[in-house]
Amino acid sequence: MNRRLRQSEMLNLPTYPGEPIYVPDMLVAIVALANYSRHNNGRYSQTVKQWVERAQEEWLDQRTGLLVSYLPADSSKSVRGSFSALNCYYLTFIDKAFAKSQYDKLKVAFLQRSPLTGVKEYHDRSCWLGFDIDAGPILFNLSPSGTAFVVGSATFFDDRSVRSGVLRTAEIMGSTVTWGGRSHYLLANVALVGEAIMLAMRTTVEWK
After folding, report:
1. Model pTM?
2. 36 in a domain, yes or no?
């Protein structure tokens, strides 16, 4: 994978043939290289460093300052709430300062606090009721996946205001039930991956 990345002019690889590069998917690969590097004498660290440098210099949306969601960037949909929240989470594994900067910009462009706290899917238009193939059902502007993903960064940076607000939204929408001494989001019976994501986001820590 490292070899193919280095051979790519954009230092990125497509998730699917014939489709744009999905930046959150690419970040998973970069996180994998970074984690491998930590335990193997810095091997592949140069690729990670170069990717972060190019991201900061070339792949930021001009309107929001956020890392674009797709490459090549499409001005009509260059940033999305679900993608941007996931980008912020993955960046915490690679570059804490860059992750914090992106998280602060995410809050400016996408955080909504009323009537429910969460991440909007679209920063430049309203969508009170709709459906998005990546984010899922949009309700009151909020992106279900983006709202879940932002908990990871809020936990990592100890942003208790955002974290508690989003967890209230998760409780309202998910409805915790308890039996046998274990708690469970009732709505997770529809999409179990959502509960797994929330567990990961709620327990985010800095990797050593």
Report:
1. 0.88
2. yes
